[in-house]
Structure formats: C-alpha cells, structure tokens
Design a protein that fits this description.
Elements lengths: L2 H5 L9 H32 L17 H30 L13 E8 L2 E6 L33 E4 L3 E4 L4 E7 L4 E5 L4 E5 L5 E5 L5 E7 L11 E7 L1 H13 L9
Parallel strand pairs: 1-5, 4-10
Antiparallel strand pairs: 1-2, 2-3, 5-8, 6-7, 6-9, 9-10
Helix pairs in contact: 2-3
Length: 260
C-alpha cells in the first residue's frame, strides 16, 4: 500500500457521504492555500528585513494593508464554507430525516446502538414491529438495553451483543445511539457517520448504505484503558439476506436469549 493510500480517507459507501467528502476537500484546499501563503510570506519577510539590509531597526512597522486584506479574504472564505456548505449540509441532514410511511419493505430500519466498555451492541424491534419494554433497572452486561424479561414484546426483539449486526443495502438506516457507562463515539468511517454516545441521552443519526460488504465500527472518543480495542462489525447485505437473518434471529428467541 502506497503512502498516498494512508493520506486518503476510506472510500465512501453511503448516499450522504459525497457531500461530506466535498466539504472536507474544500476545507483542506483552504488550509493548503493558507499554509503555502503564510510560508511564502514568512520567507519573504526573512529575506526582505534581513539584518544586512536593515542595520537599524524600524519601529514604525508595516505601512501597507496587504496583511489586512489577506486576513479579510480568509475570513470571507471561512464564512462561505460555513454558511454555503456546512450549515446547508447539516440542515439537509435534519430536514431529510427518514420517516416511516407504513411500508415494512421501504420504511427505514431503526436500530438502537449501545456503547459499552469496550464493545458495541445493537437492538432491533422483533418481527411484530414492537419494541420490548426497557427499564434501566434491568440493564446489565448481558442486557445492556435494559429489556424487561417479562415483557412479551421483548421476547422476539433482536439483540447483537458484541457480535456483527446486519443492515440492508440501499435502505435508510436510523441509529439511535447511547451509552451505558462513559462517553463513547460511534464512528462508521465508510458511511461518514460519527456521533458521540452519551449516557442518559439517545441521539439519532441516519445514513443509506449503497455498497454491500463487511465494515467496522470504531470508537472515536477516548473511553478507557482498552479504548483501542473497542471495535465492532456490521454487514451491508441484500434485502433478502437481511430478512432471512432478521427472521432467524427473532424466531430463535431474540432478546430473550440474552436474559439467560
């Protein structure tokens, strides 16, 4: 693998990732212009005001306004990036949040994601489409979502504890992210998703995977002495593969298996 591969981000695999990549390119281009510009200015001043040409110090300083105009120009570009790209991108993500329309074949897939030192867990509603009742008093290492064992709706819920979870390709995915201990950060590099997982809060993010494959979940927030080992896996598969897996997991006992 060449050095260039280490400098580039992993290839985008989500429908929303292109806009994020474009914004990052624009920001890095600005940083490149600033780096080259200020370096050139530094070398110019070192040569222009060298001691041999200026044996006597000039206490008045610069008399021109080039630096002022340069600073104003940089500020204008930063405002354009913020108001012209970053804010509209954020607003679009908020305004176009997937909404259920009553069609189980096209509705977004909702997944609860729970960060736990040092693993990622996923929870889906069962085949009945109903989320099992959850109570923080029932939460434990084997039941991080606090599903109530006696609740009938929880019996067929699907949980993936420290194991890969599946999502269908070309389908809207909503992840509702939280943590059961400390602050983590749910990061899917290929999907261009990064969201802090905060205890006591549930924060939703959405994306649409467009490439099938095996992908990695990492933690982007220092969360303890084994932070570097906090990794998870998820697979983007066809709709048919997802339905087969989902049905089998739910019928096999679903979340009920984790209570034992």
């Amino acid at each position: 693998m060449s050095l260039w591969n280490y400098l580039l981000p992993p290839s985008n695999a989500s429908a929303q990732g292109r806009a994020i990549d474009d914004l990052l390119v624009y920001i890095h281009l600005l940083m490149l212009v600033l780096f080259v510009g200020w370096l050139a200015y530094f070398l110019y001043t070192v040569f222009r005001f060298r001691q041999s040409s200026n044996p006597k110090a000039d206490h008045v300083g610069a008399r021109g306004h080039v630096s002022t105009y340069a600073e104003i120009g940089v500020a204008v570009v930063e405002v354009v990036l913020l108001l012209g790209f970053a804010v509209p991108l954020w607003a679009k993500a908020v305004d176009e949040f997937p909404i259920k329309k009553g069609d189980p074949k096209t509705d977004p897939i909702e997944i609860q994601i729970m960060g736990q030192q040092f693993a990622w867990n996923a929870h889906y509603a069962g085949l009945d489409g109903k989320w099992g009742k959850q109570d923080i008093k029932d939460a434990s290492a084997n039941n991080p979502f606090g599903l109530v064992p006696s609740d009938a709706d929880a019996k067929d819920d699907v949980t993936c504890l420290r194991e890969p979870f599946l999502i269908p390709v070309n389908r809207d995915i909503i992840c509702r992210i939280s943590s059961m201990d400390v602050i983590h950060s749910f990061k899917l590099p290929r999907m261009r998703v990064t969201q802090d997982a905060i205890p006591g809060l549930t924060i939703p993010v959405h994306f649409t995977p467009v490439e099938k494959g095996d992908y990695m979940v990492i933690c982007a927030q220092l969360c303890g002495n084994l932070h570097s080992t906090m990794k998870g896996e998820y697979k983007v598969v066809s709709q048919e593969e997802f339905e087969t897996w989902y049905s089998a997991k739910s019928k096999a006992g679903g979340a009920g298996a984790s209570f034992e």
